[in-house]
Amino acid sequence: MKKRKIFILIFFIIAGLGVGIFQYVKTFRAEIVAAYQASKPAAGHSWTEMQCTSDLCIDTTNHRVGIGTDSPSKPLEVTGDALFSGDVCNGSGKCLDSIYETNVTQGTNPTCPAGQTIIMKADGAGKWYTSAALTTWYQVVCGTLMSSDGTALLVNSNHTTKQCTDAGGTVIDDGSGNNMCRFNVGTCPSLWSQYGNWSTTAQTSCMGGWHPSCTSPTGCNTPSHSWANEGPGTCGYSGSDYVACGYSYVCCALTCTASNTQIGCY
Hints:
Blueprint: H1 2-39, E1 56-59, E2 64-67, E3 76-78, H2 96-99, E4 117-122, E5 128-129, E6 139-143, H3 161-166, E7 170-173, E8 179-183, E9 194-202, E10 205-207, E11 219-221, E12 225-229, E13 234-240, E14 251-257, E15 259-265
Parallel strand pairs: 2-3
Antiparallel strand pairs: 1-2, 4-5, 4-6, 7-8, 8-15, 9-12, 9-15, 10-11, 13-14
């Protein structure tokens, strides 16, 4: 009888252990499944790549890294400002620090040669910035700003040299390193603006209108000019012009303006 009780006790102990182990394995399996579901790659991604976020993206398919973007278009794309405590060099050993440099002892706020634009500035500690926030700088990187279509920007950065030639214009330098687009028409195309007064004008003749209340109209010929940053020439004459004369049929002083044959735009 005693042996039977011992056997029953051992049976219940073993059964209890079995149930406990089963419950533990069941719970552990559920935790593993939940962890897998939470960490598995999103659709279209694999375990071999880091899933992209708006903070950091490592695109192993296209071999690109994005900081501040989840869709880098270049081997390294940074959205936002970048601060470098050291120099930045390319594969051939060309570094920003040696592209164009003005010694501190030669003064502050150095500028670029004619025809070039300041791309980056360095402060007194030698740190480079692309922002124009620096009010005092000691070194500059100079170059030509390029656009998304791979060609240089025109003055004021509204259009590119490619957009100029595609629109039928010719890229022209204003003599101080600023490029504009010259069109062989009188006005700039839609979405373009005239740069300064750059133009070529032709002589224009004007004659005042006759009216019984204005029997002695006069006329004049404007001067003309070749390509220059100069407004159109004018001359004065008199005659009857209902609108220009204040909506009245009388003689009044009128202005004749030369016609543009070429115009500089940006």
